[in-house]
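pinging the channel bc i need a second pair of eyes. not urgent but kinda urgent?? the chain im working w is below, pasted from the shared doc
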Amino acid sequence: MAVLVLGGYGLIGSAVVARLCDRPVAGLGRDVAVSRRRWPGVDWREADLAQLLRAEDWTPLLAGVESVVNAAGVLQQGLRDDVAGVQERAMLALYAAARQTGIKRIVQISAVGAEPRASTEFLRSKARADDALRASGLDYVILRPGLVISSAAYGGTALIRAVRKIDPTSKIVAMSGLMNSEQTAELQHLPRRAPNIFSIRSKIMATISKEPGM
């Protein structure tokens, strides 16, 4: 049985896929052609999260899957990007499908500041998905990192690194720190039904200086 990584070729998702390379892993995204060449051993499944709004839309994608890591996210609304569709409505459908298909655990990578009254729809929709997961009856872990950067600049991460040089107090998490944090490394060993919600920020801020270009 495999772990399905949503947003498997994104900044965090690709690191999760690499971390899980010693076990069966599947990745999901809306355009996986490049990822199939990069990680031929991964079972890539192509779908647009914004279109997966019913439990039955998820059922075939969960075949052979025992747990799900949601590393997908949309920072802002766009012609091809639906913030609430990807981060909330698709997740509600996933939770329903997970109950029906017996998924063992869902790991939700949320964000520090995810609150119902947050200033951005990115954070508000993350909060609503987090709350729905907590109420779903499923076994879950919610990770709330700060802004995550990597030596590879995906989207706005080059700008984030520049901001970090200007403002050393910025709440930024290095990818190496996130992947090596205790909660990420030991997800399979966390107690069932515990309040498994973790903010990953100050604990690993010291690792930022080790990232190339910082």
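so The CA atoms of residues 15 and 71 lie 10 Å apart. and Residues 83-101 form the longest helix (19 residues). — does that match what u expected or am i reading it wrong
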